[in-house]
Design a protein that fits this description.
This protein is mostly helical. It has 2 helices and no strands.
């Protein structure tokens, strides 16, 4: 084995002496965590996320509802030709007869 440096020897001796000062009686088991499981930071974080989601949903609803406001002028319907002699008829188109098969 190689010879140890004097600094290493002194460090080993200091650690050994320090270790001899501590006994099993000095050691104590770890204490259980105290307080609530939900910290105030976590509660605040959840509240901020909930508030942001609510604000985003409200903004989306406002955008959807504002697109159909009656303040905006609606396009005029197409013009209809009317003749003074024509009588108004129903606007439902009549069915187009399908091709009738010819009988021999």
């Amino acid at each position: 084995m190689s010879a140890r440096a004097p600094i290493e020897e002194r460090l080993r001796a200091a650690l050994e002496a320090r270790g001899q000062l501590i006994s099993a009686h000095d050691l104590s088991p770890a204490r259980p965590p105290a307080g609530s499981t939900w910290g105030t930071r976590r509660i605040r974080r959840v509240l901020y996320v909930a508030a942001a989601a609510t604000a985003a949903a409200a903004a989306a609803v406002i955008l959807v509802l504002s697109s159909n406001t009656p303040d905006r002028p609606r396009p005029a319907p197409p013009a209809r030709h009317s003749s003074p002699t024509a009588t108004p008829t129903s606007t439902v188109p009549s069915p187009v007869p399908s091709a009738v098969p010819s009988t021999p």
